[in-house]
Every structure is written in C-alpha cells, then in structure tokens.
C-alpha cells in the first residue's frame, strides 16, 4: 500500500485490507521496492541527523557558549534553540553543506515534549537572501516527505546516479527565495517519534508547524520580516490551509494583545500556494469523469461509452457520502466516503496501466517501481508507510479545507492554486472548480475572469493558462488559478523552468498574464 503515499485517497485502512473493494483496486499487483537501491540513498543522506540521534542517545554532551546552548550527539554538533512561549518545544540545528554548498543552510529537528521530532532543511536564496521572500514547502502524503520536493522537484539539488549522487538544479526555487523544507506531520520522512506518537489529523500538525516557525524566527530574526509563503503539494492541499489558518489566528491574537506583552512574532503570511492539491474533495471527486472522459488527456476514447457512463453513475453516491462527512465530521462518516470514492472512482482508472500522476506515461509497476517513477524509488526511503494509515483512519482526506481560506483571503493573504493538466490524482478541472466556488470578496471577479495565456519570461514559452482576480492586473492576483501544460502531479519535476517562473512571479507579485 505504500505505493500511494502521494495521496491518502488510495491508502485504504488496514482494517479493511481483506475487503472486496481493495481487491478491485489493488489486484494488479505491486512489487516491493528494490531494497539495495534504497539503501544507497539512505547511506548517502541519512548519514547526518537521524542516524546520529537515534543511535547516539547515550553518548551526549551539553554546554553553553556565547549564550547559545549546544549538544553533541555522537560526532554531530547541534545548537539548541528554545523559546519561553514554547516550553515544550526546542529546535536542534546543524549547518550541513550537502546539496547546495553555495548557500547558507540549516537543518535539524523540531523536538517536542511528546517526543516528536520534525525534520527540516533550510536553504538561503541564491540571490539577495536578505530581501528574498521566505517559502515553506510541504509535500503531500501523508507519509510523503518534503525531501521528495527537495530532491526531485524544486530543491537546489536533484538525486542522480540511482541515489548515489546529486546534481545542481538550476531551476531551484531558492533562486529568488529562501526556502524551508519541512517534514511534517511527525513520522513523515526523516521526522520520527521514538515513542510511536503520531499526529492523526491536519489541524494538530498545524500547531507544531507554528511552533517551528516561531522558534526558527527567534534564532534567525533576519528572515522573520520577509513575506512568508506556505506552499504544499498533493495532500498538502488539505494541511496547508490548516497551517495557514493557525498562523492567521495567532497573528490576530498577537495584534490584539497589548504591545510588547507577547514574545511571539507576527508571521508575515503573504500567501498560500497549493500545487495539484486535494482541498475540497466534494468538488474534486465530482470532476473525475469530466477529466477522464473529456479532458486534454482523456483516458477513455468515448465520452459517452460504457466506462465513462459507469464512472459518472458513481459520482452522486461518492458526493453524498462526502457531504455527510462535511456535515457530521466523524470517522463513521468520513472513512466510508473515502473508501467508496477511492475504490469506485479511482479503482477502474488504476487498472489502465497508466501513471496516475502523469497519464502521458505508461506505468508497469514491475519495471517502473511502485510509484511509477523509477527515480522515485530512490527517495522512497524517506517515506514512512505508517503515516499513511493513521491519516486515512481518521478520514482526514474527506474534509473541506477550502472553508479555512476565505477569512484569510478577505484579509489580504493571497491564494495561488496551480495544477499540471496530465495529473489524474488531483486533476486541474476539479481544482479550478473549487477555486471558482470560493466565497470571498473576489468571487464575482474570479467567476467573470477569463483564462489567458501564461508565457514564461526567460524562455518565452507558452507554459499554461492563468485566471486571476484582485489587484486589477497590477499584481499576480489575490485569487489565482494556473493550469500548467504538459505537466503531471509534480509540476517542478516536469516543467522546471516554468515552475520557477511561476513561483518567482507569484512571490514578487508581478502579473503572470504579461509576457
Ligand atoms: C557526482 O556528480 C558530480 C557531477 O555532478 C561528479 O563530478 C562527481 O564525480 C560525482 N561523484 C561520484 C562519487 O560519482
Ligand atoms: C490583495 O492582495 C494585496 C497584496 O498583494 C493586498 O495588499 C490587498 O489588500 C488584497 N486585496 C484585498 C481587496 O484584500
């Protein structure tokens, strides 16, 4: 089941592992990941933090120097950062030189009293880091590490040589931004919990991310006043709105508190960026037949043929179940909704021999790996299957996270939703629809807005289309939807130059419609 770590949609609860529905979905047989390849990657990259911490617990030294606290675990030196407002959290920092030695880097863990340890890796901007905005990137999952984004998509380096080496990525998002890759929630990627504590639902994870940011800004105040953007892919479309909401509410409280009475910093939340996300399952599940039968990469030849008809007949039941999850939020309503929609809608689509994250590609899982990307297996090491299960047991993926966004947007936080048009898992049609339905003060303007060409600045390439509301065309918009052409679920992987153009213009708030 770990093949579906990019999305919880297909990770059915283990309790039902013998049910007939799972037989339908998983009957085409997945093969275990080649452990020797995986091991190479581990040896290469896991050599720092986690290994030392897990093995080195008995062998520690602690001291204070220049007002800073340090700890030595095995041969690794960490600086410890704490904050009076977060007595139960601390940051453990190192300064690695891997991946992009040309820029300043910090990595390490957020430790919590409940023995959770969230791994992060920060890279300074390659250009004017003092003024460049700050992005936090979260991959989807659950069970999917931000290291996928780092090493495959938008990070300063990419894995090469089957995981034995890396190459510099010239289109890294740290070209014009400072960027933090955070593995959250706990037990995702490098993050770990030795007591087996796990965070089951997105809102809980938001509090840890907030603590992380505050601690990070205590230690690195130089980044705290920069515009802050939270960007997330895939299932991140569910937890980024939750995290943004926690930040927004804390900011409100802080601004009401008598000045100086709090030691917390207001976080300069500028935008939320959702990449091929799952945010409003009701609307998005409802779009599956339209995408599969009539989209630019339709997988069935005949839009009124029996397969398309069958797919369409399942949608009302799927939506009715999701509706009861929305109305009566409990495992009893939300888990069945996920189960039904996954097996009945995605089930048949998974039998087609296509890569569900990019249907332009075929997928033979025996050859291409469980995830349909051969290279992805090299990073699969960081994934932790356990997490997948905890999330879908709660039915977390069936909630409408879009509801968390309007307050923020009406108060000046911008929203960018983009989607590669060849992705079947979180297709662009459903993403555009939920954005169109967002009940904000930009609603009328967005509904009336046309999709217009988006052309990259450097290459002059028609990379997709953009539809936008707010700022009257003088900025990148307050609510903006972008379709990326010739791209699947992981846009920066398929279209690195276009993705860099998009994020750079977005964070600099410069119109995407101009060329
Ligand atoms: C890693 O890749 C670089 C070029 O990107 C190359 O110069 C170097 O020799 C490689 N290292 C190994 C161990 O293969
Ligand atoms: C739109 O976004 C800008 C930031 O680019 C913000 O200053 C402005 O207040 C937002 N517009 C509205 C009407 O909220």
From TrEMBL:
Keywords: Carboxypeptidase, Glycoprotein, Hydrolase, Protease, Signal. SUPFAM superfamilies: alpha/beta-Hydrolases. One of its GO terms (molecular function) is serine-type carboxypeptidase activity. Residues 1-17 form the signal peptide. One of its GO terms (biological process) is proteolysis. Pfam families: Peptidase_S10. One of its GO terms (cellular component) is fungal-type vacuole. It is an enzyme of class 3 (hydrolase). InterPro entries: AB_hydrolase_fold, Peptidase_S10, Ser_caboxypep_ser_AS. The keyword Protease applies. Its EC number is 3.4.16.-. It comes from the Eukaryota. PANTHER family: CARBOXYPEPTIDASE, SERINE PROTEASE FAMILY S10 SERINE CARBOXYPEPTIDASE. Belongs to the peptidase S10 family. This is Carboxypeptidase. The lineage of its organism: Eukaryota, Fungi, Dikarya, Basidiomycota, Agaricomycotina.
């Amino acid at each position: 089941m770990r093949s579906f770590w990019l999305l919880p949609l297909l990770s059915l609860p283990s309790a039902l592992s013998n049910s007939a529905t799972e037989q339908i979905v998983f009957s085409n047989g997945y093969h275990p990941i080649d452990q020797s390849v995986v091991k190479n990657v581990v040896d290469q990259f896991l050599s720092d933090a986690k290994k030392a911490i897990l093995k080195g617990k008995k062998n520690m030294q602690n001291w204070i120097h220049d007002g800073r606290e340090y700890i030595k675990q095995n041969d690794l030196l960490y600086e410890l950062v704490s904050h009076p407002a977060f007595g139960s959290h601390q940051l453990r920092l190192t300064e690695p030189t891997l991946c992009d030695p040309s820029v300043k880097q910090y990595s390490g863990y957020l430790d919590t009293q409940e023995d959770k340890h969230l791994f992060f890796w920060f890279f300074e901007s390659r250009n004017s880091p003092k003024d460049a905005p700050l992005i936090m990137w979260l991959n989807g999952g659950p069970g999917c590490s931000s290291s996928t984004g780092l090493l495959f998509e938008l990070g300063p380096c990419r894995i090469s040589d089957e995981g034995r080496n890396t190459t510099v990525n010239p289109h890294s998002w740290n070209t014009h931004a400072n960027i933090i890759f955070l593995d959250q929630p706990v037990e995702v990627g490098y993050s770990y919990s030795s007591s087996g504590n796990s965070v089951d639902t997105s809102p809980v994870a938001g509090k840890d991310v907030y603590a992380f940011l505050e601690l990070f800004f205590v230690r690195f105040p130089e980044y705290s006043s920069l515009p802050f953007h939270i960007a997330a892919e895939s299932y991140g479309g569910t937890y980024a709105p939750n995290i943004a909401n926690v930040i927004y509410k804390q900011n409100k409280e802080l601004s009401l508190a008598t000045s100086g009475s709090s030691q917390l910093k207001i976080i300069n939340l500028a935008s939320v960026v959702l990449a091929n996300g799952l945010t409003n399952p009701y609307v998005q599940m409802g779009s599956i037949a339209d995408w599969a039968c009539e989209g630019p990469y339709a997988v069935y030849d005949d839009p009124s043929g029996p397969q398309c008809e069958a797919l369409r007949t399942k949608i009302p039941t799927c939506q009715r179940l999701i509706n009861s999850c929305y109305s009566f939020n409990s495992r009893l309503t939300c888990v069945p909704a996920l189960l039904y929609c996954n097996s009945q809608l995605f089930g048949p689509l998974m039998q087609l021999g296509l890569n569900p994250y990019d249907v332009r590609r075929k997928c033979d899982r025996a050859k291409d790996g469980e995830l349909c990307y051969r290279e992805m297996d090299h990073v699969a090491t960081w994934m932790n299957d356990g997490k997948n299960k905890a999330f879908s047991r709660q039915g977390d993926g069936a909630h409408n996270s879009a509801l968390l966004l309007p307050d923020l947007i009406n108060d000046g936080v911008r929203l960018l939703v983009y989607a590669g048009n060849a992705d079947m898992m979180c297709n662009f049609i459903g993403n555009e629809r939920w954005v169109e339905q967002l009940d904000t003060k930009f609603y009328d303007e967005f509904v009336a807005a046309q999709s217009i060409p988006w052309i990259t600045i450097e290459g002059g390439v028609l990379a997709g289309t953009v539809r936008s509301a707010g700022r009257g065309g003088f900025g990148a918009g307050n609510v903006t939807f972008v379709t990326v052409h010739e791209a699947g679920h992981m846009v920066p992987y398929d279209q690195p130059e276009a993705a860099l153009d998009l994020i750079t213009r977005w964070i600099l708030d410069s119109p995407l419609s101009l060329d």
